[in-house]
Amino acid sequence: MSTKLSVAFLGLGHMGGPMAANLVKAGYEVVGYDPVPAAQKQALKDGLSVVDTAVAAVTDADVVITMLPNGRLVLDLYDDILAVAKENTLFVDSSTIDVADAREAADRAHAAGYRAIDAPVSGGVAGAAAGTLAFMVGGSKADFASARPLLEVMGRKVVHCGGSGVGQAAKICNNMILGVSMIAISEAFVLGEKLGLSNQALFDVASNASGQCWALTSNCPVPGPVLTTPANNAYQPGFAVALMDKDLSLAANALRANGIDAELGLRAAELYKRFNTEGAGGLDFSAIITDIRTRSGATAV
C-alpha cells in the first residue's frame, strides 16, 4: 500500500487523534472529522485536513478509519458514508464495540461493494501517541493485507485473528482477562495488608512466582513497587474505569449470548460497573483496589 493513499479518519478523540497524527507523520494524506472543536483544533496542529462532515471526509478517501465510542454510532455513521464512498474503499473500524455490531458493520460495507475489517486496539492513549498499539483484526486475509501497512504505522503488534468480528472477540476476551486479573491482584494486596505483609514484599514474591502477570508488573495497583504506574499518580489513567466497564459489559453480553458459564468474568463486570456508577469512571482501572479496601474496612499501608 502506498503512503500516497488518502485516508479519512472519523473520530479524533484521545485515541483517534494521535493515531491519525502518526499516519500524517508517515506520509499519508489524512482528512479528519470530529464534532468536538478541541479535537478539530488539535488535528489541524497535527497536520490533518479537517472537514465539517463525515461525508465530506469520506468522499475521496481510499481508506476510512473509524474510532467511535460505541457500535450504534458506528452503524449510524456507516448508513451515511457508505452511500458516498468511492469504489473499492477499505473500511477499518478501530472502535471497541459488540461483536454482533462489528459483524453488522462489515456486512453493510460488503453489501455496498466495499472492503471492511474490524481492528480494535490495546495500548491506551500512551500507545496511540507512541505508535505502539496492538491491533486485533477481523476480516478476510486480503483485506487484512491491504490494511496492514497503515496499522503498522499506528501499532507495534498487528494480529489477524480471523473473520469479521473476531478482532472484537479477541479484544473483549483479552480485557476480561485483564479485569479479572486486576481484581484478584487488588484483593491479594488488601489481604496482605490485613495480614501484616508489606506491599513491596508481596510484589517481590508474586512478580517472581506463579502470580506474575501484566496487571501486577506493569500496572501494579499499589504505589511504590512500579514507579510508572497510575497508583503513583493518584490513579490518573491510564486505562480508565469507565472504559473497563464498557469492555467488560461487552464481554458479559457475549458470555450470556453464547451460554458460557463464566462466573469470574460476569462478576468482574458487575464490580467495575458498580465502581464506575459510584463516580470512579475517570480513575485508572487499578483504582478498584481502593473500593476493595473501603468495603473491607481496611486502609492503605
Structure description:
This protein is α/β, with parallel strands linked by helices and 301 residues long. The protein contains 13 helices and nine strands. The protein has a six-stranded parallel β-sheet, with helices on both faces. Helix 8 (166-194) crosses helix 11, helix 8 (166-194) crosses helix 13 (288-296) and helix 11 (241-257) runs antiparallel to helix 12. It is elongated and about 65 Å long. The relative contact order is 0.09. The mean pLDDT is 96.
- The H/E string reads EHEHEHEHEHEEHEHEHHHHHH
The whole-angstrom Rg is 20 Å
Distance between the termini: 54 Å
Structural class: alpha/beta
Tally the helices.
Answer: 13
Mean pLDDT across the residues is 96
Q: What proportion of the residues form beta strands (DSSP E)?
A: 5-15%
Largest sheet: 6 strands, parallel
The 3D shape can be described as elongated
Lateral strand order in the biggest sheet:
3-2-1-4-5-6
Proportion of residues in helical segments: 40-55%
Query: Which regions are unreliable across 5 or more consecutive residues at pLDDT < 50?
Result: none
How many beta-strand runs?
9
